[in-house]
Amino acid sequence: MNTVSNELDLLVDATMLRVPEFINDRDQFTGITLINLSDSYANMTLTALNASGGKIFQLSDGTSNPVNPVILPPLAPNAQFSMDLSQIINLNDNVFSLGHLEISSDQSAVVGFAITGKIRATYLESRISGLDGISLYRFPERLYDWIAPDVPEEESIPSLFVFTNSNYNSTDYQIIRYGRDGSLLEANTGDETGASSMDTLEKTELFTDSLISQVLITGGRNAISSFRAETYSPDNKVFSGTGNMGERR
Prior knowledge:
- This protein has 249 residues and is mainly beta.
- Helices cover 4% and strands 47% of the residues.
- It has helices at 85-89, 203-206; strands spanning 15-24, 28-36, 44-50, 56-58, 64-66, 70-71, 80-84, 97-105, 110-121, 126-135, 137-139, 160-164, 171-178, 184-193, 198-202, 215-218, 228-233, 238-244.
- The strands form six sheets. A five-stranded antiparallel sheet has the order 6-3-8-1-11.
- Strand 13 and strand 14 (184-193) form a beta hairpin.
- The longest helix has 5 residues, at 85-89.
- It starts with 14 loop residues before the first strand and ends in a 5-residue tail after the last strand.
C-alpha cells in the first residue's frame, strides 16, 4: 500500500498448480516434485481434497479427520522438493485414498510433476511397476480440450478415465471417440462432475462399442488408392465401413 499516492495493490505475481489425481494404498504411492525457477525463495502450501471435494482422509494414526493445508518448507532459487505424498499429509498406507491436490506459491516461476506407481515386493527384493507420470497444470490456465492419442484395450486391464473438477460449481463434459481412420464412432454427452469432485470411469462405462480383435484395412486394392477404410472382425467374419478419410472432422 502506498499512502502517499493513496494506492492499494491487491494483485501479486503468484501461481496455483493442480494435481488432477493422486492414489495412495498399501502397494500404491504418489510422489510430488516441485522446482523453483525464480530468483527468490518460494513459499508453497499444499491442499489435499478427496474424490468428493472434502478434506476427510484416513490418517496414519488410525483416525479419520480433515487434512489441513500443509505449508511446505521454503524452496530456495533453483532448488527442488521431492517427497512421497503420504509423508506430507500422513496418510494411512493400509487404506486406499484417492483425491486431487492444489499447490499455491507466492512465486509464479514454480513448476512440478507427480508420479504414481505400484510396489511389488518379494522376500528378497522389491520393485516398482506401473509407473505413470502426471502433469501439473497451472490455474487458471485450464485445459478445455484434450486429446488421448491412444486408449489401450485389453480384456484383463480396463482403461480408466479420471475427470477432476477444480471449480466451485458443477461442470459438464463431453467425450468424442474417433476410429483409427479418423471417422466419428460415438459421442458421450450429458456427463457432469460435481464441485471440487472427481469421477473415475472405465471405458466400458463411457462407450458401448469395442474395437478389440478387429483389423483396419485401408489404402485400396490392386494399386488403386482409396480414401475409405473398413474394419474386419475375425470373430464375426464381417467387413464394416468406417468412414471417408478425406472428410474433415
